[in-house]
Each structure stands twice: as structure tokens, then as C-alpha cells.
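TL;DR need C-alpha cells for one chain.
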Amino acid sequence: MAVFNVCWACGEYSEAKEIDPAGPFAICPRCGHRHPFRRLPLFVVTGASGAGKTAVAQILAPRLESVVVIEMDILWGHVRAEPEDDYRSWKSSWLRVAMNVGQAGRPVVLCGTVEPGSLERLTEARYFAHVDYLALVCADDELARRLRSRPAWRQADSDEGVARMVAFNRALRRGSATVFDTTGLAAEETSRRVAAWVAARRSPGPAGADAPAPA
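>> reply
TL;DR here they are.
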């Protein structure tokens, strides 16, 4: 994201650039330079640990050739992630990655445990046309079974960890995001439904919104 925060005209660094969707342009608050960029949608496949996100991401990537599918856990432990600030640094890092990938003209699908609505509170969210969430859920007892049957290196730390994921699973079922119940569904069928969901929500937006304006 740094390349978008630095003004090409005056060199000023600012995370508070105004966004003009007509271009779209990121406008330098110091000199008014209008930086053209691609403003694409961002898709987030969320869910509790054990809901099926990783399996879906592996199958989904080759199925959606015009979209970049990324499993968010690949940076877990390598980027600062503090629950005290709602994992702000970790989420912001992923938005920066998605923003930069989008400049090649391919929307991003992020697969990870993210609370619906939390990404829009971050500064980087302004660079996306919209953020859509799809929550993978399953029956509480099935989720607990999946977590406890994982290999040792993937198991929840404790019964408390399992209970926390079950509570998050319940919250997702009650939330406003689109919900897919994976109980009894094979990963292939879940991936097919996720691919259809992404395809239905992809749109170019306002004229020129998915392509950079002339410099």
C-alpha cells in the first residue's frame, strides 16, 4: 500500500487520501495530485476454524481463474496480530496485499477467520469498490468434532479454544453475511457454491471503475 500512500507529484506520505470514485483517483491532501488506480471488489470467505475454509480455498483457486484466491493463514505468525486491537495490523496487511494484487485487474478472495464488517473500518478498505462476506458455518457439534479430530499440529489449544470457535460459528449464523452451511457437504460442492457466489457478485461498477484512468 505504500506506493499508493506516497504522492507521485510531491512525495508526501499520507494514509488519509480522499478517494474520488469517478476515476477512481486517490487525491493527495497536500498538493491535490490525483493518482489513478483500479478499484475492484474484495470477497471474504470467513468462518470459524474447522468450518472448511482451507479445503475450499485449495479447490477454489483453480476454479476461479480470473480471481486470486488467498488463504489468510499463510501470514499468521509472520505479521503482528494482536487481539487487543482486533488484529488491525494483520487485517490491514491483507487489505494492502489485495489492493496491490487488484492493480493487475484481478479481484481477490480472502479466506480466513474475519468478523464480517470489521475490514470496512480500516483505512485501506476505501480502495475497494465493495467488500462482500460469505460465512461458512456448520452444526456446533460437527464443528467441535472437526476441531478435536484434527492432527496434533492443527488442534485447538484447549476446550476453551473449541468453545470460542463454536461461539463464533453461532454468531456468524445470526449475522448479516451470506451464510453457507457446510454440515454434510463435501468440499467440492462447497467450493462450487462459493464460486457461484463470487461470480454473482462480480461487477465492473461505475464506468471505468475496474481500470485505471489515464495519468
